[in-house]
Amino acid sequence: MNQCFLKNGDRVVLFGDSITHGGFYGEYLELFFATRHPDLDVRFSNSGWSGASLEQGLWSVADDVAAKKPTVVTVMFGMNDIDRDAWPRAGDTPALAARRAAALAAFDSRMDELARRIRAEAGNPEIVYFTPTPYDQTCIDGGAPSPLVCDDGLAELAHRIRARAAREGARCVDLHAALLAVNAAMQSADPAASILRRAPGAPFDRVHPGPAGHVVILHEILKAFGEAGAVDEIVCDAAGADALSFSCTEKALPFPMTGEMGLALPFVPFGRDFNREILRVANLEPGREYAVRIDGIEVGAWPAGELAAGIDLASVARTPQRRQAEKAADICRRIWVGERTLRDLATSRRWARRHYGLDPDAPGTFETLIERLLAAGAAEDSYDVQKYRGYLKNWPRRAEIAASMESDRAALAEAARPAERHFEIRKQSLANHGKRG
Predict the structure, then answer these.
(1) Is the pLDDT at 359 greater than 90, yes or no?
(2) Which of 53, 95, 127, 228 has a CA 20 to 30 Å removed from the CA of 150?
(3) DSSP string of 316-370, one letter each residue
């Protein structure tokens, strides 16, 4: 039974900085709810803004929150609010201490205003507070830890967010504590490891988690949302027979993990907590192995004792259910490419207006901005130049992108609906005894 607090028709706006804008945890949330609750109409919307602090968040409440008519708003800011350069590992000064105090005070007052405005302007949605994700100041990169200890500031913001949520009786997702715990476990074995790394071998900025880090985030969100753990449980009795077969339609699909996402699994019990798809078969011949086929595909062979205790099909890569879930994941990935693209367009317009004093609707604005950046020494492949080139390409396509996302969401709902499956469980011949799937 669904224990999650989300209900049919909920519209969830994910509001925050680049960790939200990147879209990974939003994509995983949408995929989880599509596969786990195929009859629940819940939609997630990306309102992240790369580089945003709470000050920028306040600029965008009308467009990024209220205009989307949410019933739930998640709020995660902090990484760009702490004045990172004011937290040196060595060489502190009174002036830097004053900057740190000012940043913390500004965060409190701006969060007060943000919560008030969300409730007043967006129809009083439920606010779910996320503590900020950490800055990895301990990873040994290039032979040394970070010269900044600004995660001390993020830890203080996390403390304040927890206290705020408690005062308001609001839900709080403590991402800071969860990711720090995973980081500590990783670095106890390898001081150069980090969950705050986009991907193995990728440039390391100590800030942005990759797919594995976003699985940790997903795990914490689902816990805070009150989500239940089981995909389904199939229980049958062989009554001593050498073989049995049956057909059934499970309640849900398993959540499909890619290899990069699965790097989180040694550190968070995602399968145990949220992805158990159990097949339990009683009264098979003790000591013998049994092959399991689903829709004619042999997915593995297990001893009678393991089948009696229950095997977890969600961890088996070859099941038709897993393959169906992977097709749903492909559709969800397309949706969130669209979400990120629309966010890129919105934030490009906002930066042009707010930081460069340019009218984003005036002819030639972004061409001029690109020329200005290149003249100032920016490389053609730099983040800002590529961002504005992307704007020129995608702004004329925005309606097409939005329409494609709507079509894909309908396709996702259909793709994630469980199908009837035919199971066969048959005793292995003695020649095959001991062979595993």
Answers:
(1) yes
(2) 127
(3) -TT-HHHHHHHHHHHHHHHHHHHHHHHHHHHHHHHHHHHHH---TTSTTHHHHHH
